[in-house]
């Protein structure tokens, strides 16, 4: 068990926890924070329960992020873009930190639209990357990626993908006022958005890596799953109500 993170199970960790964790990951030192323990089995049940609750909360927060964005006429994603969207990634509370070396780290969901216009079960993912330059501070940001083509997101079948390298990505247009003037052809394969402190805007996320979060998918589905089976709805979630609620709300927002 990760001794740094275990003490914050079920709680919101302090800001220095994010700083230490992300910096270790960026520098490739994350393994230094992990130690074995003979008492791991005795706490496995409670840990599994917390993990499931954490995944359920993440799914619910992802839906809240999209709902709040779409409720504001000045910040909404153009409906014409959502109507042609074939896949989505939502990452609530991506943590961004900078101290000479900058880093982003967050967890979220990925979904594709089926041929009948319904949405797939969610694949749990992580997103992160580093940057360099003069940057000091920390911030939590909600991220939404709108994919024009579901094949792009299916690159996750291999386990990971890099935004801007595997697929073209651009900052997305926002607001009802942009509907008429926005690029009606939507030439980019992915449109990216971020929201921080209530401000929502298109954002560049080139170079960010998206990976399948195997442990979170294990918590959600109760077994090891592959991306193709999840996207094809061939596996059922342990928290069926949470997933169905997500899919129903998403269908209403993107008919």
From TrEMBL:
The reply on keyword Transmembrane helix is: yes
Q: Which UniProt keywords apply?
A: Membrane, Transmembrane, Transmembrane helix
Q: Name one GO molecular function term.
A: phosphatidylinositol binding
- Span-the-membrane segments of this chain are 15-36
| Domain (Ysc84 actin-binding): residue spans on this chain | 129-251
Which Pfam families does its entry note? Ysc84
What the entry lists under CDD domains is as follows: SYLF
Task: Tell me the PANTHER family matching this sequence.
Answer: SH3 DOMAIN-CONTAINING YSC84-LIKE PROTEIN 1, SH3YL1 PROTEIN
Q: What is this protein called?
A: Ysc84 actin-binding domain-containing protein
The species this protein belongs to is Thioploca ingrica
Q: What is the lineage of its organism?
A: Bacteria, Pseudomonadati, Pseudomonadota, Gammaproteobacteria, Thiotrichales
